[in-house]
């Protein structure tokens, strides 16, 4: 059972209270972008074995979106953090680095 | 003026715990900056209660204020007073970015009381209902089996639940099944 702590209401919510929102920190390509950029934005999602950054929504709760950093292999959760950011905060990166030294995820690394 | 009635006409069931539909409750959704002095004063004027801390409900002399999310409160007042309170909130919060909406008729209210009330709710909601964890004044939005709902515990040990009116029948049947006299688990006894 995946348990994430919602950074907005502080509830340690289990999976059934939450809704997954896919990959975090997507850079959107819309009008004016090339076909390749738009294709990559739409279809080329990260699907790592290991450290992953995701969006989640506390749907049966306070209703807010937030980010989670977790390991897809062990279901270990490193941290959850605010949705109002375009990259993981340094403290989240540090928490991941403490458990998974040398991790990388898209352009981010420990 | 039409005769307003609640979803289930005050249905009640006595099993492990007493489950009852508590009739029409006045509810206002208030969104805005909860840290703002103007909002805090308006909530005080509407309900007599202060703005609650995260996941709490505060009672005042004219109602209660419950924490729904970082920018949203649920104000509980008498059903007959709702329209007047919404109008007053609009005056008090003029110029302040906010939204106050009467949602009374979109909701159904239930009470679960009695010795096994904790157990009845714990069977259907993924919430830690241990005595030290869920106390009087705690407010929690969650799900009850397949539907969204919110509930709190009052000083008398009664749980109060609010959910959407459209699923009132589901909520009532669910609580009655969880309170079936032969379904005791005894986990919080």
From TrEMBL, chain A:
What is a GO molecular function of this protein?
sarcosine oxidase activity
Q: Which domain of life is it from?
A: Bacteria
How is this protein named in the record? Sarcosine oxidase subunit delta
Against InterPro entries, the record matches this protein to: SoxD, SoxD_sf
Example GO BP: tetrahydrofolate metabolic process
The lineage, from the top, is: Bacteria, Pseudomonadati, Pseudomonadota, Alphaproteobacteria, Rhodobacterales
Automatic annotation (TrEMBL), chain B:
Recorded hits in SUPFAM superfamilies, A to Z, give: Folate-binding domain (SSF103025)
- What is the top-level taxon of the source organism? Bacteria
Kindly give the InterPro entries that the UniProt entry links to this protein.
SoxG (IPR007375), TrmE/GcvT-like (IPR027266)
Name of the protein = Sarcosine oxidase subunit gamma
Q: Which organism is it from?
A: Tritonibacter scottomollicae
């Amino acid at each position: 059972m995946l348990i994430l702590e919602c950074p907005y209401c502080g509830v340690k919510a289990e999976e059934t209270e939450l809704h997954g929102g896919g990959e975090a920190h997507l850079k959107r390509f819309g009008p004016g972008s090339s076909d390749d950029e738009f294709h990559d934005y739409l279809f080329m999602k990260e699907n790592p074995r290991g450290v992953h950054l995701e969006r989640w929504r506390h749907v049966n709760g306070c209703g807010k979106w937030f980010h989670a950093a977790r390991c897809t292999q062990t279901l270990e959760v490193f941290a959850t953090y605010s949705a109002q950011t375009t990259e993981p905060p340094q403290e989240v990166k540090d928490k991941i680095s403490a458990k998974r030294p040398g991790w990388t995820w898209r352009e981010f690394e420990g | 003026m039409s005769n307003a009635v609640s979803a289930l006409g005050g249905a009640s069931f006595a099993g492990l715990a007493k489950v009852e539909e508590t009739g029409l409750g006045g509810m206002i959704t208030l969104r805005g900056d909860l840290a703002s002095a103007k909002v805090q004063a308006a909530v005080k004027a509407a309900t007599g209660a202060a703005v609650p801390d995260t996941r709490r409900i505060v009672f005042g002399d004219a109602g209660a204020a419950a924490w729904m999310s970082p920018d949203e409160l649920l104000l509980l007042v008498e059903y007959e007073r709702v329209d007047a309170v919404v109008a007053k909130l609009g005056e008090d919060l003029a110029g302040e970015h906010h939204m106050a909406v009467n949602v009374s008729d979109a909701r159904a209210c239930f009470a679960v009381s009695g010795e096994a009330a904790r157990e009845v709710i714990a069977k259907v909601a993924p919430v830690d209902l241990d005595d030290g964890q869920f106390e009087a004044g705690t407010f929690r939005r969650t799900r009850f089996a397949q539907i969204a709902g919110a509930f709190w515990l009052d000083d008398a040990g009664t749980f109060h639940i609010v959910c959407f009116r459209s699923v009132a029948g589901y909520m009532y049947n669910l609580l009655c099944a969880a309170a079936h006299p032969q379904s005791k688990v005894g986990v919080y006894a």
